[in-house]
Write a structure and sequence with these properties.
320 residues; alpha/beta; Rossmann fold; seven-stranded mixed beta sheet; four-stranded antiparallel beta sheet; 8 helices; 15 strands; 28% strand; globular
Length: 320
C-alpha cells in the first residue's frame, strides 16, 4: 500500500551547467536470476564529490562497474556526461580504480607509470609522481612485491595521472593506514576543487566519507535509498528524543528505537520545521542519518532526495 507524501522540503540546489556526470533511469543489473541493482533512478551533478554508501553486497561495485564500461545493465540506462555509459569516446574522460586494484605484478612502479603515460594523451606525470612520492615508494620496486596499501597508491596514481573528468573509486581506502588515507583524500579534494573533477567514491565505512563528500547516494539491497546534496539531506531530517509512549506520524518516520523510558527517532522534516509533541530535536550527523536508514529494511522507508521530497514506494520498495 502506498504511503502518503512527506512534507515539502527546502529548494533543490541549483542545477549544474551541462549534463549530469552520472544519470540513471530505471537502471538494473541481474546475475543468474538475482538482481544486484533494480529500478535505480538518480543524477549526480558534475564537479561534485559523491559518496556511494551502503553495506557489503548492496550493489555499489555493480553500479561503478556499469559506469566504467565493465558491465552492461540488464535494464534501464546509465548516462555519463549525457552519453550512454558504453560510448567509446568516454574512455579518455573516465578513470576507474577497482576494489581489487588490478595491476601488472611484474612491472616496476616506474614502468607502471610509463604505461599510463603512453596510453593517456593528457597524462600528468607530476601528479602521478606526487602520489607515489607521498608513499615513499621506490620506482624500481616490482608491483608484486608491494603491500596492499602500496598497490592502492599506485592504482590511484594511474587514475589521477590520467586527468579524468570522472574518477570512479571502489572502496579505495580499505587497505590504507590513517596517514595515507588522509594524504590521498586531501589530494582527491584538491583535484575536485582545482579542476572540477567529478569523484564518485564507494565505501561501507561511513567515517571515510564524512567531511569529504558533498553529494550522497545510499544503496541498500540494490536500490537507491537516499540521493542528494549532503547538506540538504541533513537539513531535511531530525533526530528526536521523547518520553516512551510518544507517537510519531508514520509518513515522516524513518527509524524509531525504544531505550527504556525514552524513544529515539530519525524523521524526515522536509522544510526543517519541528515535529509537534514532547520532542527534543537536533540535526543528525552524516553517520546518524545513514545508520538510521540502514537499520530500517529497504521496503519500509521511502527514498529521499536532496530537496527533502520523498518518492512514494510500494511495500516491496519499488518506486510507485
Amino acid at each position: 500500500m502506498n504511503t502518503p507524501p512527506a512534507p515539502a522540503g527546502p529548494p533543490a540546489p541549483p542545477a549544474p551547467c551541462g549534463p549530469a556526470a552520472l544519470a540513471a533511469d530505471g537502471l538494473g543489473k541481474r546475475y543468474r536470476g538475482e538482481w544486484a541493482l533494480r529500478d535505480c533512478t538518480f543524477a549526480v551533478p558534475a564537479g561534485r564529490i559523491c559518496g556511494v554508501a551502503g553495506p557489503n553486497g548492496a550493489g555499489k561495485s555493480t553500479l561503478l562497474g556499469i559506469a566504467a564500461r565493465l558491465l552492461t545493465p540488464t535494464e534501464g540506462e546509465l548516462r555519463v556526461f549525457g552519453e550512454p555509459a558504453a560510448t567509446e569516446d568516454l574512455r579518455a574522460r573516465v578513470a576507474y580504480v577497482a576494489q581489487d586494484k588490478p595491476l601488472y605484478p611484474g612491472f616496476t612502479v616506474a614502468e607502471t607509470l610509463r604505461l599510463g603515460r603512453e596510453l593517456n594523451p593528457a597524462w600528468d606525470q607530476g601528479l602521478a609522481e606526487q602520489v607515489i612520492d607521498q608513499g615513499e615508494l621506490r620506482p624500481r620496486a616490482k608491483v608484486g612485491s608491494l603491500s596492499g596499501g602500496q598497490r592502492t597508491r599506485v592504482a590511484l596514481a594511474l587514475a589521477l595521472g590520467k586527468r579524468p573528468d570522472l574518477l570512479l573509486l571502489d572502496e579505495p581506502m580499505s587497505d590504507l593506514d590513517p596517514l595515507a588515507r588522509h594524504q590521498l583524500m586531501g589530494t582527491l579534494m584538491a583535484e575536485a576543487a582545482e579542476r572540477g573533477t567529478t569523484i564518485v567514491v564507494s565505501s561501507h565505512i561511513i567515517p571515510e566519507l564524512d567531511g569529504v563528500i558533498d553529494y550522497l547516494l545510499l544503496v541498500q539491497s540494490g536500490r537507491i535509498r537516499l540521493c542528494g546534496d549532503v547538506e540538504d539531506l541533513l537539513d531535511g531530517h531530525q533526530l528526536l528524543t521523547g518520553p516512551a509512549g510518544s507517537a510519531l506520524p508514520e509518513d515522516v518516520l524513518v527509524e524509531q528505537r525504544s531505550t527504556g523510558r525514552r524513544i529515539d527517532a530519525l524523521v524526515r522534516t522536509g522544510d526543517g520545521d519541528p515535529v509537534d509533541g514532547p520532542w527534543e530535536g537536533s540535526r543528525p550527523s552524516l553517520e546518524e542519518l545513514l545508520l538510521g536508514y540502514l537499520r530500517t529494511p529497504a521496503g519500509t522507508a521511502r527514498a529521499a532526495t536532496g530537496s527533502g521530497r520523498q518518492e512514494q514506494t510500494t511495500e516491496n520498495g519499488i518506486a510507485a
